[in-house]
Design goal:
By secondary structure, this protein is an alpha+beta fold. It is built from 2 helices and 8 strands, in the order ββββββββαα. The longest helix has 28 residues. It folds into 2 domains: 83 residues, F0F1 ATP synthase delta/epsilon subunit, N-terminal (ATP Synthase, domain 1); 50 residues, Single alpha-helices involved in coiled-coils or other helix-helix interfaces (Up-down Bundle).
Length: 140
């Protein structure tokens, strides 16, 4: 169908989503981007955040990615995520615990590598919590 673009979201754990969409929104490293059918080819890095897929029919679907890479072709979008999950499957308690661990690590005396790892964990936890809060507002 000319009015859709095929979307694949995969991570090391497996395929999270595969199907058509009329629009896809992704958290690129330089800011959110929208991809429509017949988009120009593009390669980009993704940061932790929400991927929103608008299917041709039905409600928008949300997914969490913990970073990764994006490839866009005129008829296909491929997301190769470090980690990925359906937004509805996110665990708020686990995200809060991860944020707490990262904040505690940053408060202590740590080397630059540990600091970078803690900052990355903090960014992933913040992205998960932001997505959970947004979904709560939509449902509420």
């Amino acid at each position: 169908m000319a009015n859709t673009i095929h979307v694949d979201i995969v991570s090391a754990e497996g395929e999270i989503f595969s199907g058509p969409a009329k629009m896809v929104f992704l958290p690129a490293a330089e800011g959110e981007i929208g991809v429509a059918p017949r988009h120009a080819p593009l390669l980009a890095l993704l940061k932790a955040g929400e991927v929103r897929v608008q299917p041709p029919e039905g409600d928008e679907q949300s997914f969490y990615v913990g970073g990764g890479a994006l490839e866009v072709q005129p008829t296909k979008v491929t997301v190769l995520a470090d980690t990925a999950a359906r937004a509805a499957d996110l665990d708020e308690a686990a995200a809060l615990a991860a944020r707490q661990r990262a904040e505690e690590a940053l408060a202590g005396k740590i080397d630059k590598l540990e600091q970078a790892e803690a900052l990355a964990e903090l960014a992933r936890a913040a992205a998960q919590l932001k997505l959970i809060q947004r979904l709560r507002k939509i449902r509420g």
